[in-house]
Amino acid sequence: MPTASQSPAPRELSSDGVWPVQAAIAVVTANTGKSLARGHMKALVLKRYGRADQVAFVDTPRPVPKPDEILVQVHAAGLNPVDNMIPKGMFKPILRLQLPATLGSDLAGVVLEVGSRVTRFKPGDAVFASIFDLSGTGAFAEFALVPESTAALKPANLDFVQAASIPMVGLTSWQALKERMRLKPGQQLFVPAGAGGISTFAIQLAKHLGATVGTTTSTGNVDLVRSLGADEVVDYKKQQFEEVLQDYDAVLGTVRGDTIEKSLRILKPGSTVVSLVGPLDAAFARARGLNFFMVFVFGLLSRKIIGHARKRGTEYSFLFVRPDGSQLAEVGELLTAGRIRPVIDKVFPFAQVREALAYLEKGRAKGKVVVQMR
Questions:
Q1: Which fold has domain 21-165+342-372?
Q2: pTM surpassing 0.90?
Q3: Which of 4-8, 115-119, 229-233 has the weakest average pLDDT?
Q4: What mean pLDDT is predicted for residues 132-160?
Q5: What CATH code would you report for 168-318?
Q6: I need a labelling partner for 18 at 20 to 30 A (CA). Which of 104, 221, 273, 308 fits?
Q7: Residue pair 70/140 in contact by the 8 Å Cβ criterion
């Protein structure tokens, strides 16, 4: 048994990269109902908002799962733009983090302990999950608490790095295209910045749903986005998309700046714009249970784009992803069937997670950036 300051010793993995269930059960001593001997773990923690030196590795007690949680030994964690925004305080009015807080949203790993009310998972299961916007531990740690309702079994054909790249982009795409847009076969969807982390997944999901997809990218990424299924590809270094595309049914807003406003020009009446980058709207504020002042502020922030959209007979809304294990399981089925494939730009060791975040922030990644713990 490792000491309190050491990580557990490496154990032999099965062919799919998972500890044998028997070994995990031996570790957890599940037959007696006793928990693992509590130790410590390394985690990347945000201590205070606004300063880079307030994000640091710490040695912290390994968490104990509540009745409806599972304790996961994290093998890999996927990075998302929000992981750089949170330390700057950009989501401080929205996310109710209790500092110090472990950063990171997406993970893949092996279940070590289960709470007393957990029925869907057992020690030894390989899982993946998004724990964004939830209290408890984050994904940039050797161990993480995951509510049972947010986790899904890892697709057997994916390794842990591939699986960790999926949860937030998969759930965001699913909730935007299937729930909010209700995208139908034959409709046309515009997804700007096609080589980005969210866009590489959304393009594939849209094609699975039977849509025609238009996107923008640089010259060097044209072949990549076409391989994902994009039908109309605009090289933004050579052309303006709003001068090329027309009669689209929906836009997935993935780029800040004036891209969303420009995209209104390519839409037909009765179309839909779902933005992932803002501006935030009053409906979002109400759904989050924010106070009247914040509802008023977000209403002001989005008034211009909503007004422009209405003039063109178009509906605008902002989407904030929510963790959902059932939806993630459906995403996993598509991955298992090969309908969608992970797109990963670069993998960093856990010790270099801050360097990985800096690399992601440059905005040049083709697909996802992942850190690997083991």
A1: Quinone Oxidoreductase; Chain A, domain 1 (3.90.180)
A2: no
A3: 4-8
A4: 93
A5: 3.40.50.720
A6: 104
A7: no
